[in-house]
Design goal:
- This protein is mainly alpha-helical.
- The protein contains three helices and no strands.
- α1 packs across α3 and α2 packs across α3.
- The mean pLDDT is about 85.
Length: about 70
């Protein structure tokens, strides 16, 4: 992947290539947070690019709240 400088505007062909790369990695199981860290972009940017490319986003993971068992 091309060197993406923090805060630089990414448009056109570069954005399409980045979106395809992020989509492929996300669909293989990588998280949005790890994609953001590896590209040096924000969580919001990666989330927006994935949505623009038509990716079906996964639900949130982690613990869920439930009533205490008695």
């Amino acid at each position: 992947m091309a060197d993406l400088k923090k805060g630089a505007r990414i448009t056109g062909d570069t954005r399409h290539k980045l979106a395809a790369d992020l989509k492929r990695k996300y669909e293989k199981g990588e998280s949005i947070r790890s994609l953001a860290q590896s590209t040096g972009r924000s969580y919001g940017f990666v989330h927006r690019v994935l949505c623009e490319s038509g990716v079906q986003l996964r639900g949130r993971g982690g613990a869920t709240r439930s009533k205490k068992k008695q």
